[in-house]
């Protein structure tokens, strides 16, 4: 007997996806695995132990109610889904109360592809159906799976493009069968000295391959979100491009490859500074071209860098750090509506330091 999503299942998936990106809302990617959050904590001298991770994630989740106007979903790491604040309240319940969708990172990291120049695929399919069913029962609405591709003279190889597209599609189909909206994240790393044009060409190839695979796997596009890189020049490219050039290259690549049935593009920040990530998002939404999807943010570093700096691991700084989070979330919501201007930053804490981590794959 063939397996299909019922109309009710499709309706539920489409509603979750639309709800996350409605009216300029975006996603807080707080799903750093324990190794990755350790790198973030290193920058503020905080020890990477479970208690500090709990304190930090409590700060993020218990932010003022008004955060719901800017954040439609938060992606959690497994550990956080079951953590409680000091009063014994589950952190995920803060999100539920605010009407914010609960997301979960379900991939298990990257592994090398034999015979390639350090290229990778992402693992985690074994037992994914059971894990998704449990996450759904535990209140999750959506999931995230990240694949990584690299630009060099000889990469991404066709093998890496095809393999990563297929594993993303397989993951997406398993999520949907369990009532979970999959975020499809094929990240092309910004490492290298390649031009904006080269990144556009590779992004088009990679995203087109993803949509071919999603179609082959009968994934219901209305019940998915895409989390791509913006099209930017390589980190070491000597030519600098304006936000408008980045916006047009990004929109051109997406308009050529992403079906309008897919409701929302939720960009990763990829090591851009907080202010660049916001400026680029604004330029994308201010461009005078047809944009059939919501174009918003799913930032990790670009929403948290100045929050971490304000917190520094001290209980007395929690309220100040939460204000910083609210501010960054609001700036990005405005950018997702094309209404942001750098003068809105005030004398606040926006960070214009690059957040680039070489070969960011962990
Ligand atoms: C690319 O990383 C994702 C978006 O973060 P940025 O906006 O900082 O680029 C992020 O969600 C990432 O996938 C998580 O931090 C999980 O990473 P690890 O490497 O711990 O799986």
Protein topology:
Elements: H1 7-20, E1 26-30, H2 34-42, H3 50-61, E2 71-76, H4 78-81, H5 91-97, E3 101-105, E4 110-112, E5 120-122, H6 128-137, E6 142-149, H7 158-177, E7 181-188, H8 196-216, E8 225-226, H9 243-257, E9 264-267, H10 274-286, E10 294-299, H11 301-311, H12 318-336
Parallel strand pairs: 1-2, 1-10, 2-3, 3-6, 6-7, 7-8, 9-10
Antiparallel strand pairs: 4-5
Helix pairs in contact: 7-8, 8-9, 9-10, 10-11, 10-12, 11-12
Bound molecules: 2-O-methyl-1,6-di-O-phosphono-D-mannitol (5MM).
Compact description:
The chain is of the alpha/beta class. It has twelve helices and ten strands.
Task: State the main characteristics.
362 residues, alpha/beta, 12 helices, 10 strands, binds 2-O-methyl-1,6-di-O-phosphono-D-mannitol
Give a verbal description of the structure.
This is Fructose-bisphosphate aldolase. Belongs to the class I fructose-bisphosphate aldolase family. The protein has 362 residues and is of the alpha/beta class. 43% of the residues lie in helices and 14% in strands. It has twelve helices and ten strands. The protein has helices at 7-20, 34-42, 50-61, 78-81, 91-97, 128-137, 158-177, 196-216, 243-257, 274-286, 301-311, 318-336, and strands spanning 26-30, 71-76, 101-105, 110-112, 120-122, 142-149, 181-188, 225-226, 264-267, 294-299. The strands form two sheets. The chain has an eight-stranded parallel β-sheet. Helix 7 links the parallel strand 6 and strand 7. Helix 8 (196-216) runs parallel beside helix 9 (243-257) and helix 10 packs antiparallel against helix 11 (301-311). It is globular. The model has no long low-confidence stretch (mean pLDDT 96).
